[in-house]
Amino acid sequence: MAKYIEIYRDLLNKIKTGKYEIASFLPTEKELSDFYNCSRDTIRKSLNILLQNGYIQKIKGKGSLVLDFNTIEFPVSGISSYKELQNIIPGESKTYVNIFLQTEVFEPIKKELAMDKGKMYHIERVREIDGEKVILDIDYLNGELIKDLSLENAENSLYEYIEEDLGLVVSFAKKEITVVKASEREMEILDMGDYDLLVCVKSYTYLDDGKLFEYTISKHRPDKFRFVDFARRNKEKNI
């Protein structure tokens, strides 16, 4: 594991356990680099992850302010595998594969994958964080583009297999976020507590040649996550 990830996790643990209290400031970059025996650049990388995930706010001339938090931050604009996100998700995370099937593409998935015929993969995975099953991921992949997937790939990382084993380039995605009522089955397989709604993120993901290879439905218990994006104002000048 990279040094900056180890430091990030240690700082996060100190924030979550109250060693660094909400509304207090973290030690300076120099103090942290001395403590962890590393460069200030490494410390900056660790602090940037805390910043991106809403645990601190950098205030010019004062340092890193610890913010109040009670949810896990999921980026919306980027394309990351769950395995990659595990580096920044606090707590212990596990994946359970409920469904792994290769079958002929069927309606309505034909439309969603832009396929008239051929093989597809249907994969359902439950994500558990700190002992609670809070995410349901349902993936449909074009089996004519993504070949020879295995159960082990689904348990580990689909994108790792696609990019490293198949040598394909995952390029861009279109996403839609809604709030939906949980089905009876979802209420059974997820730890829903008092909730009966789920945040549903539908993603259409493409290779660098513009081919759609994956349609994903990802459902999250609403109290556990916040979904974030980065936006820059682009004000056109009047001509």
UniProtKB/TrEMBL annotation:
Keywords for the protein's UniProt record, in alphabetical order: DNA-binding, Transcription, Transcription regulation
UniProt keyword Transcription regulation present: yes
Pfam families: GntR (PF00392), UTRA (PF07702)
Domain of life: Bacteria
CDD domains the record matches: WHTH_GntR (cd07377)
InterPro entries the record matches: Bact_HTH_transcr_reg, Chorismate_lyase_/UTRA_dom_sf, TreR, Tscrpt_reg_HTH_GntR, UTRA, WH-like_DNA-bd_sf, WH_DNA-bd_sf
Record domain HTH gntR-type: where: 1-69
PANTHER family documented for this protein: HTH-TYPE TRANSCRIPTIONAL REGULATOR TRER, MANNOSYL-D-GLYCERATE TRANSPORT/METABOLISM SYSTEM REPRESSOR MNGR-RELATED
UniProt name for this protein: Trehalose operon repressor
